[in-house]
Amino acid sequence: MTDFHFTQQKLDNDLVSSISTLLNSIGVPNLLWGNYLLTVYGVHTIVDEAAFVVPDDLGQAAFYSLMSAGFLPCNESSGCPHSGTFGVTTAFKHLHIDDELPVSPYRKSEVIWEFEGLDFLPDKSPEIMLASDDRLPSASLGRGRGRFLSHPCAVKIPCAVSYCEALILLLYRGRDSVCESYWLAILSYMLEYVDGTDILGENKLQEGYRKFYHDIKLGDPAMYSILNDLRLSLIEERRLPVKNN
Prior knowledge:
Shape: globular
Number of strands: 6
Order of helices and strands: HEHEHEEHEEHHHH
Helix content: 25-40%
Radius of gyration: 18 Å
Number of helices: 8
Strand content: 5-15%
Distance between the termini: 36 Å
Strand order of the largest sheet: 1-2-4-3
């Protein structure tokens, strides 16, 4: 285990790197998630947590390592907006950086269930890249934080294409629920800020996702019919886990 200890550091790339390194050191592979990930892609958005995806069977280990490192317990019970009581997919447990910002481990099966694994190195998996990858944008006013400057970089992220495909699957699963509008908004951010860059383009998506991505980009109302059809197809193929509320 690393000697990292949380002492009220602000949420920035250094803290994110320290969290990822801590999890790696206890054998918990992890990918950056949430709005912080969006800013690395170049999306201009508010960062509301430090989120990481971890294997389901290592979620408790991740949580207890973060707790041991000094992150703050949540004392608001069901009143905390990050407690999972408001309908949108949240971490199964979380701690706090401060009153407003949590650090949250998400189970892989909740958000990126079709990823092969989280322990692959970027050169071994087309789904994963380092947060310092030169293909990512640099920090720019109005365009997010951009890539990490630290080398070597411990933080791994989903490739933008795989991330968008995961968002579309989450949209399918959340159809006709409060989650649908949330995931649609996140996908819209990717279309606005990232589509057409070196890391994301319509032609890079797999066939099953490309038509929906194309129609949502054009604002075509037919996308909802496509969404319904693909959702039913994925359920029949048992590729779409049903979320139990």
